[in-house]
Amino acid sequence: MIGEKIIIRGGRVIDPANGVDASVSVCIADGKIEAVGDVPKGFAANQEIDAQGQIVCPGFVDLCVRLREPGQEHKATIASETAAAAAAGVTTLCCPPDTRRVIDTPALVNLLRERADGAGKARVIPIGALTRGLLGKELCSMMALKGAGCFAVSNAYAPMENLLVLRRALEYAANCGLLVIVRPEEPALRNRGCAHDGAVSSRLGLPVIPYSAETVAVAQTLVLAEQTQARVHFGQLSCARAVAMIAEAQSRGVKVSADVAIHQLHLTEHAVDGFDANAHVNPPFRALADRDALREGLAAGILQAICSDHQPHDPNAKLDAFPATEPGISSLETLLPLALQLVESGVLDLSSAIARLAHGPATIMGLDAGTLSVGAKADICLFDPSLEWTASGTDWLSRGVNSPFYGSAFKGRVTKTLLGGRVVHSL
């Protein structure tokens, strides 16, 4: 805010982008970082925030958050889900194009940005559609989408008509300087499946999605990415073989990156036991070996980001027989505590976990975010790693309560979130 000066004192400041991990002060002036460390001479704060016993870090950047607006406001709204994002320490979020009015024109991009600005809780970065209506046939005007503020394009879950269309799309995106986000899935191999092809689905009699549905799509896209020199990001990987394929491509200099959804780092195929529809996700939870490979890929930097893959649903969406329920988890508010569980179990150190939540995803998207650099926007998260809470009731802000973690006890919670130097969430 113009004229506002804030100082955050007493906290452990962790900014992986700048190699900072120390108990120092953070000074904010006019919505931007003024200093990290020594307080500048003559700096007179209008507001002081006591961060004793807390972690002070860049606001998180989430690469995959479905807001449901426009078109599915019975599930959630921009106002409700950006409030949940603020409570999760997420200051910048990317919205996939598969809203019920597909984000395939600058007008839709502008609509989302205006509504998000009106809500005032988080920065919303719309991801433009790769093809008109996500029908996989006619390419969108990517340059126009870029001009409206898109940093990336994607066809979300919708398949391309054929590989020639995908190749042309990658060529066009490369010429426009846009990132292409791919949710890898071969539709013929998915074949109306809903669970991992393993022991649990066999016992329950559930139709399956084999891991080859993911790896075949990854292989095809990698070949075309290398040929076209496009920047490609694989979203929400689920299996060990896909991680190995990404690692091999990266070692050869192919311009590819990848992320993983936070729940895939914790749950396995056994989560669907008892036909728990809240564990119905796409891609499905896979074998323990896959989960462990995802963790190893994250620690090694092959997967540079953790996302929430937030998909809020109305209660009816999860009330049918398991295969007929809608996939997806409401997962923004469990993003941080589940990441802290990875730290506690030794998968990542705290600085690396914050890097995968903030600077890593910002770098993938090419965003000026995820850092406490002097002059950067003061998008800041404060959290207490020892604070115990239960993910339910008034402590849950998302409209969607469709989560296998809903009602669970957690340790670690966001206490304050600042967006451009303005407090948008406070316990």
Automatic annotation (TrEMBL):
One of its GO terms (biological process) is purine nucleobase catabolic process. The keyword Transit peptide does not apply. Residues 53-234 form the Dihydroorotase catalytic domain. Keywords: Pyrimidine biosynthesis. GO terms for molecular function: allantoinase activity; dihydroorotase activity; metal ion binding. Gene3D superfamilies: Metal-dependent hydrolases, Urease, subunit C, domain 1. One of its GO terms (cellular component) is cytoplasm. InterPro entries: DHOase, DHOase/Allantoinase_Hydrolase, DHOase_cat, Metal-dep_hydrolase_composite, Metal_Hydrolase. PANTHER family: ALLANTOINASE (PTHR43668). This is Dihydroorotase.
